[in-house]
Amino acid sequence: MSKRTCLIMMALAVVVASGCQRVAAPAAQPMDPLASTAPVARGKIAQVVTISGQIAARNARELGFPIARGRVREVLVQQGQTVAAGQPLIRLDTAELERKLREAQADLKVAETALAVAQQTAGAAEMARAQAAVAEAEYAVAEAEYKLALARETAVTKLEQAVEAARAALQRARDNYRVQEISAQTAEIRRLEYDIAFLQRRLRDLPPGEERDAAAEGLADAERKMSKARADRAKALRDAGDEIAKQEAELTKAEQALARVVAGTDDPTAAAQLAYEQALVQRETAQKALADLQAGVDTAALKAARTAHEAALAKVEAVEAEIEQATLVAPFAGVVFALYVAPDDRITSSTTVIYLADPSDLRVQAQATELDIIRLQEGQRARVTVDAYPGQTFWGTVLTLPPRGEAMGGMNYYLVQVALDPIPPSTGLVVRPGMMAVARVITGEKEDVLTVPSAALRYEQPDITYVLLANEDGTTTRVDIEVGLNDGIYAEVVSGLAEGQTVVVPLVAPSQGGFMR
């Protein structure tokens, strides 16, 4: 064999060896000393819907003083303190309210004295006034009854007289028109007509000169007076004609009123009838007041005194209520999560002073997409993890599913309430409102499947999932696997592992390389 042939064969051997090395199984690597291990075991795995949100308390409220206002005198609690229902929290300065209370109490004593005097003195004077009121009402009834009878007797006669009077007035208006036709400016107009004719003839005969100019000026003056006289005559005739039209309308009105009464359409005694009925009501009122007084019912003066006393008492009670409201008490047992005021701060009815919440009854308020909400039902159990306690699992129950969601980013989101089960004090875990949480709602389960912790899964490509097997010599070996259900805590192993093997669980979850599973 030649030297060249040997070199070629050696090169091929290197290439084959290197190719074999690429397809060989990965070499074992030392195990991370901070990692833990978990067995591949058979068990039950859940099908879940994962929703994220915040911890909130069922009983949580921002507290303030809805009625009282002023300066903070005492802050009786500290932030983080647990308080009982009804426990005083904050007191305001009540010096001004106490002054108002003393004034209101003094007014109340005056009102009590006035009431006692009214109860003693109500009697003869009130009785005399009531009897006089009844007498006056009786007289008013008698007068109204007389006027009603008179109206019934004379109603038609008065209307007939009104018609005759309207006819007479119309005739007078017509006579006046004829008089105006004959006499209004007639003599003046005739005189001016004569003067105008005379001056016109004279102007024709006179030569130019001063005498002719005087005649022309006299003619112009006579023509102006003629225009005024004729205007005055026209106005007099127009006024006389307007009066005729007015009296014709009055006659028509009177005749129509008479016709309605004769036909029974109108009642000319309506006004008198109304006055009579009002007098009867006033008499009845006066008689009842007298009867009440005779029966021992309170007089007007006594009622006024009693009303003033009730008003003074109400004022005292209102100020006392303000003083009571100046002490803020806890409406329920809970923890003071926020304290917004300090002594000497001034507050109003809109000032929030404390945020109180009951951490013993917590829930997760989480957003579910429209794709997830159809898989959720009230009463489903949920595994809850809280960011503040990695690795810890809490349990809860789906409480409410809203009937409608809110559109955000082109998708509808629904606010789902998951009630947390009570956390035993022995755990030492304190879950607080506002903490971020993830609820994995169990919608289905598989029994007797191979499972590994979800934290043990590692991802290389969108379709490649692998784990690291823990070897007895302290090394690890990579194994590609196929995963089924994954509830975020445990994952179902469809293929690639056998029961009893041990996988590595890193202290920090491995990076997914940008691929979401």
CATH first level of the largest domain: which class?
Mainly Beta
Task: Report the uncertain regions.
Answer: 1-25, 511-517
Biggest sheet, strands in spatial order? 3-12-16-14-13-17
Average pLDDT number = 84
According to DSSP, the number of beta strands is 22
What is the CATH architecture descriptor of the largest domain?
A: Beta Barrel
Query: How many separate helices?
Result: 8
The main pleated sheet reads as: 6 strands, antiparallel, barrel
| 3D shape | elongated
SSE pattern, N- to C-terminal: HEEEEEEEHHHHHHEEEEEHEEEEEEEEEE
N-to-C CA distance: 58 Å
Beta-strand residue percentage: 25-35%
What structural class should be given to the helix and strand makeup? Answer: alpha+beta
What is the CA-based Rg, rounded? 56 Å
Number of domains: 3
The percent of residues in helical segments reads 40-55%
Task: Describe what you observe in this structure.
- There is one protein chain.
- The protein has 517 residues and is an alpha+beta fold.
- It has 3 domains: 25-58 and 361-505, Beta Barrel (Elongation Factor Tu (Ef-tu), domain 3); 60-93 and 326-356, OB fold (Dihydrolipoamide Acetyltransferase, E2P) (Beta Barrel); 126-283, Four Helix Bundle (Hemerythrin (Met), subunit A) (Up-down Bundle), CATH 1.20.120.
- Helix content is 46%, strand content 28%.
- It is built from 8 helices and 22 strands.
- Helix 3 packs across helix 5 (210-263), helix 3 packs antiparallel against helix 6 and helix 4 (186-205) runs antiparallel to helix 5 (210-263).
- It is elongated, with a radius of gyration of 56 Å.
